[in-house]
Amino acid sequence: MDRPEGEFGVGEPVPPSARPAWDDADPYTRALRTGHGPLFLRRADGWLLPLEVERWCARADAVDLEILGRCEGAVLDIGCGPGRLVAELAGQGRRVLGIDVSAAAVSRTARLGGPALCRSVFEPLPAEGRWDTALLVDGNVGIGGDPRALLARLADLLVPAGLLIAETVPVDVDERVRVHLTDTHGTLAAPCTPFPWARIGTRALVRYATRAGWTAVDQWTTGGRSFVALRSRDRSAAPERTAVLSSPRPRKPSAGGPVAIRYRLTGW
């Protein structure tokens, strides 16, 4: 049915009631809900790092599948984003949980059929010390801006000699910065809250990991992306136990509360 002439015509402002619900959301939420960018991490000096929203929101590609093929046992995807890796592992019948601080990311992961929690890696998590594999891909090795603190936390989450697969910056870099998310090349009048981040190349990550008692077991580059596989210290006195996730069910969030997946942990 044709609209009356002049109603939401070219050049006319669209009233708030006619905009998508996420139109006034933060840039990351908008990007995940639309499935495309532009989206950047912006430093205070104006430097921009483009983020690959379209790839994150697509299905797992050949590079992703190679990563997932290396995973062992129960997998914890840290900073799972829109959930392509969690959904792929869940679809294969693998034991997996995604965590992300973004409710929009967790909600999208749930819609794809992947179990996920809206939570930081530095907050209490289910099955601590019982995950066989942890994933830090799509730049998530930068979480918290302190690779040493992140590695120490992951050692607590994994089983003895657990596997960490981390994606690194494909150049030799080691920097800690404060950034904010933006969807524009220009300066925002009211930028998002800045947060600490790190950019870590393979050499720097292996150096930090070795000093913290991890063992580098593999390094590889494929599809223009670089990865490192590390094993945590083998605490041989600790019994080997595996996290088993079963019966994932969406939990209806309270108003304004985080989106999460309710699930039951069994097989201890």
Automatic annotation (TrEMBL):
It holds the Pfam family Methyltransf_23. Residues 1-23 are annotated as: Disordered. The keyword Transmembrane helix does not apply. GO terms for biological process: methylation. Keywords: Methyltransferase, Transferase. It comes from the Bacteria. GO terms for molecular function: methyltransferase activity. This is Class I SAM-dependent methyltransferase. It comes from Streptomyces tauricus.
